[in-house]
Amino acid sequence: MDIKDRLLELLNEKGWTINKLAYEAGLTASTVYSIVNNGNSPTIQTLEILCETLGIGIGDFFNDTFDLSSEENTLLSNYNTLSEGNKKIVQNITLHISEWKWLRNSVYTITIYRSLKF
After folding, report:
1. Under a CB-based contact definition with an 8 Å cutoff, are residues 53 and 24 in contact?
2. Which CATH class is domain 3-81?
3. At what angle do helices 3-14 and 44-54 cross, to 10 degrees?
4. What is the pTM of this model?
5. For 56, which DSSP code?
């Protein structure tokens, strides 16, 4: 099931129209129509808004769509509870995860430096 089919399923469950979802989400109807009718992929931010409006988390949105492990579901559920600022922090961490070794070594170096008496 793709994003448009999942949205249609959720709209059907709530008895909402595309216009009702757009209104409740504070999005333009054309934005929601482009996702549902044209199959355009929404941005993460738009998908978060739609999920929040529908009363589900992103993890729940994809839970029926993809076979996620319990760890992946936990990560998505936890991510969904974060503030926007903390979400950006997590996104930056995941983008730069390969640099963690350097970061860990830098923190270690800074800790040693701070402990030195001059």
Report:
1. yes
2. mainly alpha
3. 20
4. 0.54
5. -
